[in-house]
Amino acid sequence: MTILITGATGSVGRHVVDLLLAAGAPVRALTRNPAAAGLPAAVEVFEGDLLRPDGLAPALDGAERLYLFPEPATADAVAGLARKAGVRRIVVLSSDAVTEGSDPGHHRPVEEAVERTGIDWTHVRPGEFATNRIDLWQRSIREEGLVRTAYPDAVGAPVHEADVAAVAAAALLEDGHAGAVLGVSGPAALSLREQVAALAAGLGRDLRLEVVSHAEARTDMIRQGLPDAVADYILAFQAQWVDRPAAVHDTVRRLTGRPAHDLARWAADHRADFR
To answer: May I ask the CATH class of domain 3-126?
Structure first.
C-alpha cells in the first residue's frame, strides 16, 4: 500500500510522513529539492513539482494512495495522472473556507478535479492554522513581548498542524472515509484575547495585548513582513469574526481517539519560533 505524499516538506506534510512511517506504511515523498528535504531515510524521495505534472509519472507509478497538496493550476492534470497510474484513494488537503463559501477559487477546484476522476476521495478541510500566529505575531512577541490587534474579540479555533496531519493520515490508512468531508479545528473557539493568553501559557512567558486602531494594526502587520493585500485580508476576516462563534469540529477525537491539541500545546511545540 504505497502512499505518495505531495507537499511532503510542508508543515502538515512532514507530520503526515512521520505518522505513516510509524504505522508501517511504505511512503514516497514528492519534493522540488530532494537533497534539501531532510526526510527520514525510510522515505522513497522523488524529485517533482505539482506545477510541472509531466514529470510526476515516476512518483505515481505503483502508488495506491495519494495525499494531495492543493495546487489549482494543475489539479486536473495531476488528478488525471493519478487515475492513469492506478491510484485508488486520494486525500486532499483543502480548507474550511470551502465549507464557509469564502474560497471558491483555490481549494474547491482541486477537490472537484479529484472528484471527477472517480477515485475514492476524502477532503480534509482545516480551519485557520495556528502557525499563522508566527507570521502575525512572531516579531512583536520576540522583540516586545506583546501582540497588537484592532479586533481583540475576534473569534477563531486555530488548529495545530499535527492534528490536520493526524486526520489526513487516518483517511489515508483506514477504510470508511471515502466521500467524506472532514472539518478540522482546534478544540475550542477563542477570542484573540484568549489566544494571546494561551500563547503566553504555552511559551512560558508574560505577553501583553495592545488594542490599536485598524490602521495601526495594518501598519504593524506590514512591518512584520506581511504583504499589504494579506494584511487587508486578515483584518477584514477578523472584523467579520468579532463575537461570532467559530466552527469547532470533533474530527480529531473521532478519528484518533484523542482530543485536538489546544493553542497552548501548539505554542509549547513552537517555542523556538518565538525566541
So the answer is: alpha beta
